[in-house]
Amino acid sequence: MRKQQDFGKYLIIILALVLSIGWLYPFFLIFINSFKTQSEILSNIVGLPEQITLANYPNAFYAMNYVSGFGNSLIITVASVVLTVIFSAMAAYVLQRRDSKFSTFIYYFCGVTMLIPFQAIMIPLVNLFSQINLLNRTGLTIMNIGFSVSLSVYLYYGTMRGISTELDDAARVDGASRVDIFFKVILPMLKPTTVTIVILNGMKIWNDYLLPSLVVNQEGMRTLPLELYSFFGEFTTQWELALTGLILAIIPIIILFVFLQKYFIEGIGEGATKL
What we know:
Helix 4 (66-97) packs antiparallel against helix 5 (101-113), helix 4 packs across helix 10 (191-207) and helix 5 packs across helix 7 (137-160). The chain is an all-alpha fold. The protein has 13 helices and no strands. Helix content is 76%, strand content 0%.
């Protein structure tokens, strides 16, 4: 019996290693090819660079207007994520604490809206925002919040079910208002779920190409994914700059994940197991 358990454990470890290698291999290819010339990439895409070319990084940095694209991506992502966290947490708090049929309906409605694909509503949505002159960073931020709130409310709601209402009552006895109870008592207890929502929505918004291409595809407002697309022409592709630009574009979100990863799994578990 002991040997069977050890065999199963080792088998799981081996499978996990194989899956990890399969998942990391594309990133490895992108990284090593960012140090090659165009001709070397085309002749040997899977091999190590014969001669490391560091010039790709400054060339890609300036060619893709990295500072402008980074600034736009940062403003849109941070604003979208922060407002999503605030609105979603407040909505989930009210829905969970008010035990009524209407609150239950809104909660399940949030779950249903997650099933609607963006492609099904993108044309009328963009037309609507065009009519009210919101095809800009503000409009894109509002859209991002709308597409992120449903999942965020769903996760927050599940976590709040594990927070006793006695805490609310105790704070109310001490003279705290509803706003004080939420921001000083409830919200700090939602930290793992908040971090999970920040990572999920931050990665999605930072890496998004389709929605920004419809809303902010204009000089001075393009995000990093849009600037990165400038290396892909109709008849030719600057692969050495495109792959290098991709590395530069994903570095910030990788850094965010590294710093917040210890809360990520905990937040997913809290938001899912208590639904």
